[in-house]
Amino acid sequence: MSKENPSHQNMRPLDWVVQHAGQIAAPGHVLDVACGRGRHTRYLLSLGYRVTALDRDTGALSDLAGCPNLRIMENDLEDGSPWPVAGEVFEGIVVINYLYRPLYDDLVNALAAGGLLIYQTFSDGNAAYGRPRNPNFLLRENELLDVFSQRLTVLDFDQGYTDYPSPAVIQKICCRRQEG
Length: 180
Ligand SMILES: C[S@@+](CC[C@H](N)C(=O)[O-])C[C@H]1O[C@@H](n2cnc3c(N)ncnc32)[C@H](O)[C@@H]1O
Fold this sequence. Notes:
Layout: H1 6-10, H2 15-21, E1 29-33, H3 39-46, E2 50-55, E3 70-74, E4 90-96, H4 104-109, E5 111-122, H5 143-148, E6 153-162, E7 168-176
Parallel strand pairs: 1-2, 1-4, 2-3, 4-5
Antiparallel strand pairs: 5-7, 6-7
This protein binds S-adenosylmethionine (SAM).
């Protein structure tokens, strides 16, 4: 059994992000969409990337205020207002445990040429293990593959049951926008 303090455990980046973040061009600018307490923002900063951390509630990032490589943006992504980083492109975009389908096109358009999208969230079947249970927050089988393979090159994809960090059904993709 882990002896880690649970609050530290929650701040550990997901394996999927650790596995793929090194493929983001360096030095690069990474968008952490729905960043929450910033576990991936912190990890990406530690790798030397510039990070924009976006969430409707950024209170848990207050300890990072003033960090030179970090821009914190507090925006509601679902209230009908325009995509908050319109016109900007990023070498990397990370979306973890967040799903709002109308943003799919914005995510692809916000990737620079050669930019990497790293996405993992819960999938159909997760209700048997816990939250989220609402179908609006659960991916359909192959959904990330079907959506992103149309415009991006898929480097890695997986879906199904996982028992780490806790029992869940997930789906995850890593894909790249073509150069030039
Ligand atoms: C389950 S947490 C995931 C946090 C982080 N990505 C991680 O993996 O630790 C979901 C995040 O989505 C954010 N969120 C939910 N609805 C949102 C909205 N309408 N606009 C912006 N952020 C939202 C929440 O504030 C929360 O931080």
